[in-house]
């Protein structure tokens, strides 16, 4: 390693998103093979400017930081293996076993709706609503961002609430251990409720100037995570802005044998048919991209979802097909059904009658990708 080139990677103090910890672990591991140095700067803006000025080689950003800050002249040269993107419920018991009408604090609209699907009897409040309900709003407003989840945990221990829902980075940043329950995709138990997570969680992006040779860090990174980040970003950007907080999106590169096994267990004929030919043989054994998208009504009673499995090489067309199917489904569910000509022999009398919309997203849904005035 004496003759190896030194790479300097900038990081910031923990932003409770898991990026700092994963980068530290990666450098500790890869530092045995390369000459790596990690240097901390105060905030993301200074890290980006330092990189643009040529005073470091790489910075690590979350997928949300990449979208939020000015990264002109920079590019994503790799993505570390994706961390688990699903969120967690911090409580003494699993959602199904909480007693009575549990009081749950949740600030994310999608997780709010998904949790109601599991426990329609729960009382779900935002942090502000909860603080106001116990006459501690002024105290809550004085808290720093990194103090709010520990504050909820202390109140949970005092039995002021039954649980709260946060992303894994927030839970990981707690200064003490707290029992968590994954609100997961439930691949091994399809009978349980599934939580398709909000998009872009769990990614650590390695960002460099445009002329950086990405092969230098290819051993750190995961090509499947790189593709998943690109596809989730594209799917999310294709949806109307007013749906951004109530849609779950998940993309993952997976082995075909694993996908087929889970689809058969869940009796998902659509996925099975997309993988097998007429002779029940696998069409192509190359890895596949599995894409899921879901949204729900405010009460957690009605959901619209679509899934797609396709070879990695067909990722763009797979995404287009997924979005087309999802948008057609939404249009059918969000609009009133006109009366049909009563000429359907053998069907119930009310089959042809006009029907109200099956679903209301509660957001003034529009096909336009622009915010409504």
Strand order of the largest sheet: 2-1-3-10-4
The value of Rg in angstroms is 23 Å
Number of domains: 3
Number of separate strands: 13
Q: Ranges with pLDDT <50 over ≥5 residues?
A: 366-373
Globally, the shape reads globular
| CA distance, first residue to last residue | 59 Å
Order of helices and strands: EHEHEHEEEHEHHHEHEEHEHHEEH
Kindly name the structural category: alpha/beta
Number of helices: 12
Largest sheet: 5 strands, mixed
Give the averaged pLDDT, no decimals: 88
The helical percent reads 25-40%
Share in β-strands: 15-25%
Describe this structure in words.
The protein has 373 residues and is an alpha/beta fold. Helix content is 31%, strand content 20%. The chain has three domains: 6-83 and 200-221, 3-Layer(aba) Sandwich (D-Maltodextrin-Binding Protein, domain 2); 87-183, D-Maltodextrin-Binding Protein, domain 2 (3-Layer(aba) Sandwich); 223-366, no CATH class. The protein has a five-stranded mixed sheet, with helices on both faces. The chain is globular. The protein starts with 5 loop residues before the first strand and ends in a 39-residue tail after the last helix. 34% of the residues are buried. The model is unreliable at 366-373 (pLDDT under 50).
């Amino acid at each position: 390693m004496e003759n190896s080139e030194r790479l300097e990677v900038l990081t910031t103090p923990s932003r409770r998103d898991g990026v700092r910890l994963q980068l530290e672990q990666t450098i500790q591991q890869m530092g045995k093979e390369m000459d790596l140095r990690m240097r901390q700067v105060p905030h993301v803006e200074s890290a980006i400017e330092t990189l643009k000025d040529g005073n470091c080689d790489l910075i690590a950003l979350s997928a949300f930081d990449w979208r939020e800050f000015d990264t002109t002249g920079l590019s994503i040269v790799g993505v570390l293996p994706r961390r688990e993107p699903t969120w967690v419920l911090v409580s003494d018991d699993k959602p199904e076993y909480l007693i009575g009408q549990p009081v749950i604090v949740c600030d994310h609209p999608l997780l709010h709706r998904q949790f109601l699907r599991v426990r329609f009897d729960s009382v779900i409040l935002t942090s502000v609503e909860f603080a106001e309900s116990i006459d501690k709003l002024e105290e809550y407003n004085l808290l720093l961002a990194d103090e709010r989840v520990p504050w909820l945990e202390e109140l949970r221990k005092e039995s002021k609430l039954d649980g709260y829902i946060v992303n894994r980075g927030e839970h990981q940043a707690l200064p003490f251990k707290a029992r968590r329950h994954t609100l997961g995709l439930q691949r091994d138990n399809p009978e349980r409720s599934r939580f398709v997570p909000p998009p872009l969680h769990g990614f650590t992006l390695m960002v460099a100037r445009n002329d950086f040779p990405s092969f230098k860090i290819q051993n750190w990174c995961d090509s499947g995570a790189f593709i998943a980040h690109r596809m989730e970003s594209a799917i999310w950007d294709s949806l109307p802005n007013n749906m951004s907080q109530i849609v779950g999106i998940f993309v993952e590169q997976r082995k075909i044998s694993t996908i087929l096994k889970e689809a058969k267990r869940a009796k998902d004929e659509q996925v099975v048919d997309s993988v097998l030919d007429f002779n029940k043989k696998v069409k192509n054994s190359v890895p596949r991209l599995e894409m899921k998208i879901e949204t729900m009504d405010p009460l957690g009673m009605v959901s619209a979802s679509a899934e797609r499995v396709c070879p990695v090489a067909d990722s763009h067309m797979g995404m287009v097909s997924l979005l087309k199917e999802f948008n057609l489904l939404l249009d059918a569910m969000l609009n009133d059904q006109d009366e049909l000509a009563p000429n359907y022999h053998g069907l119930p009398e009310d089959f042809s009658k006009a029907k109200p919309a099956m679903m209301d997203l509660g957001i003034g849904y529009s096909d336009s990708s622009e915010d409504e005035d």
